[in-house]
Structures are given as C-alpha cells and as structure tokens.
Amino acid sequence: EAIDPVRFIGNHSSGKMGFSLAEEAAKRGAKVILISGPSSQKINNTNVELHKVTSAKEMLSKVLEYYDTTDIGIASAAVADYAPKEVAKEKIKKNDENLTIELVKNPDILKTMGEKKTHQFLVGFALETQNEEENAKGKLEKKNLDMIVLNSLRDEGAGFKNDTNKIKIFTKTEKTEFDLKSKDEVAKDILDFVEEQLLK
Q1: What are the E-state strand segments in 1-110?
Q2: Theoretical Cys-Cys bridge with 1: which of 61, 76, 83, 136, CB 3.0 to 4.6 Å?
Q3: Is 106 a residue of the active site?
Q4: Alpha-carbon dihedral angle through residues 52, 58, 63, 68, given to the nearest 10 degrees
Q5: What pLDDT shows up at residue 52?
Q6: Which CATH architecture has domain 17-80+107-199?
Q7: Half-sphere exposure of residue 157: CA atoms within 13 angstroms, side-chain side
C-alpha cells in the first residue's frame, strides 16, 4: 500500500506459499489464475496465468474479474488490512517533525468472496500469534469458508521468511494437523485435502 512514490506499507510475506500452491495445482491439471502482490517468486508452469497487483483494492478487483468462473478459490495472500488515506504524489521529505499517517480500512477480500460464493469451494488462511485455533475457526465461520489453513508464528520454522511451514486444517467438522514440511510439500497436503473434501 503506497505512502508516496517511494515508500509503502508492507509485511514480511514472500508469497512463496501461494506460488507453491499455484505450481502444484497446475501440475495436477488445473487452469490456475494467480493474483499476487509484490513478490520476487517466479512461476515456471505455463498453466498458471499470473496477475500482479500492488494494493488490496487492485487485488479485490482482479479477484472479482475471475471469481464467477472459479471452481476453487484459495486465498493465501497476506493482504494489508489498512492503507494510507492519502497517497502523496511526491516523495515525503524528512524534517524535524514527527510524521503521522492516517490509515483507513481496506476491503475484506476473503469476506467478499464468501458473501458472493455460489458453487466455489473456498479456502482461507490464518496466520496467528495467539488464540490460534479459536481465531481460525472464527474466521472459517464468519467468512463462509469451506476450510481454513492455520499456521502460527509461534511454531519454529513456520510462517514468513521460511521455506518450511507447519499447518493445521479446519473444516466445519474436523481438524487435521501436519508436521513441519517444505512449502512445496505443504502445498501438496493442502491440495490433497481439498480433493478429498470435493469427493465427499
């Protein structure tokens, strides 16, 4: 989310989990639309159509462009909850004063997807630091998801900046825990789980 032409508000997410999911889904024969925020990750599969965006509003717009014809929606992006109310047209110059930036709430992309869901199987992600399971289950219900993937920053080797992840998957009726694995292996576990749910 831009502050001025030089600075932005971001987070530590690399996008690796989303790119691993896109690659694995494409390997399984899916036509994949990958909508990504700023990331240095690369896609090597021609079955993946990549769209880059730089803000939550852009991401929502692009998601809605494809959502009606989507069978499975997987929302793994770490989207900013807030954005600067005003974006400076020129670089903000440093002076002796403190700088206060007013932030406004961004659209909730996953909630919008849940509200507009017709036939789609919808998968959300929750990265938590406290009350992890309770928060993930709350998000599953509130956002009308079919399943949610939880990872905790308290688990060593999980979350941002790691090539590994440790997840728990919740549906409305079950909980499944997985060991710490590479994000490519985690992507396989998630898609295996989705396939099992679709066959029920």
Answers
A1: 32-36, 48-52, 72-75, 82-84, 103-105
A2: 83
A3: no
A4: -130
A5: 96
A6: 3-Layer(aba) Sandwich (3.40)
A7: 10
Task: Give the Å distances, CA to CA, from 18 to 39, 76, 135, 187.
Answer: 10, 6, 21, 8
Looking at this protein, which amino acid is placed at residue 31? K
The pLDDT tens digits of the residues spanning 33-71 come to 999 998 888 998 999 999 999 999 999 999 999 999 999
The single-letter code of the amino acid at 171 is T
Reference 30, options 92, 72, 66; nearest CA is 72
Give the number of C-alpha atoms closer than 13 A to the C-alpha of residue 40, restricted to the C-beta side.
3
pTM of the model: 0.91
Which residue out of 11, 44, 106, 144 is catalytically annotated? 11
Report the amino acid identity of residue 82: Y
Tokens 């399971």: give the residue: 133
- Domain locations along the chain: 17-80+107-199
pLDDT at 126: 93
Residue 95: pLDDT above 80?
A: yes
Residue carrying structure tokens 């896609």: 43
Q: Are strands 32-36 and 48-52 parallel, antiparallel or unpaired?
A: parallel
